[in-house]
Design a protein that fits this description.
single chain, mainly alpha
Length: 211
């Protein structure tokens, strides 16, 4: 009888492949882009960026993987979404394309070097990064990042990102026959508390930026 607990999930090897997560989240990102264009009337760049955020969401939980491939792919996608969003904000405030581009290039390099190194140093595979608070924190972060583009793109990107992460967690739960991926808390208090604090901070940030 399968044990529907996080500990069993951590030990099981019957898990979907990384390619499965790539394909499922790519479908979610494409669907979100199409809906944004047809239903909400977003500009192409905004719809494409929101779709990219949804695609990245499906691979986000594997950022803490012990192998290098998820880190390279997911780190590149997430850093690209963050960089493009921040460059857009800088362009609006500074009105200096060259400076915004240079800052963006610097941030892209920083995210993919120091950022990934720090992340790997403080996480363990299938820990709290594979959890519902992490999924919600990613969505809240996207809402805050997309806020300058308007409420509709911000909430849409957050929904796409959340759907992407949930697709990963649900696939893991189905393949492993465990509720571990959908956990709210782990057996270690410090990372669990940190995950909830990050969620609270990003939610507050998104709320103030969208208010």
């Amino acid at each position: 009888m399968p044990q529907l607990i996080a500990g069993e999930y951590l030990r099981t090897k019957n898990m979907p492949s990384f390619n499965t997560h790539i394909y499922s989240s790519a479908a979610i990102g494409a669907a979100g882009t199409a809906l944004g264009l047809s239903w909400q009337g977003w500009p192409w760049p905004v719809a494409a960026l929101a779709g990219l955020a949804g695609w990245a969401g499906g691979m986000i939980p594997d950022l803490d993987s012990d192998t290098g491939r998820p880190v390279r792919i997911v780190g590149g996608l997430v850093s690209l979404v963050l960089t493009v969003g921040l460059v857009h904000v800088l362009l609006e405030r500074l009105q200096e394309p060259l400076r915004a581009a240079l800052v963006g290039a610097g941030l892209l390099i920083l995210f993919n070097t120091v950022g990934i190194w720090l992340f790997k140093a403080v996480t363990r595979h299938r820990g709290m990064f594979h959890s519902l608070p992490a999924a919600l924190a990613y969505a809240a972060g996207l809402a805050a990042l997309f806020a300058p583009l308007g409420q509709s793109p911000a909430l849409g990107a957050a929904a796409e990102g959340l759907a992407g992460v949930l697709s990963h967690l649900i696939l893991d739960a189905v393949f492993s026959l465990s509720l571990g991926p959908l956990k709210l808390w782990s057996n270690k208090a410090r990372p669990s508390l940190l995950a909830w604090l990050i969620l609270a901070a990003l939610t507050a940030l998104a709320w103030t930026r969208l208010a």
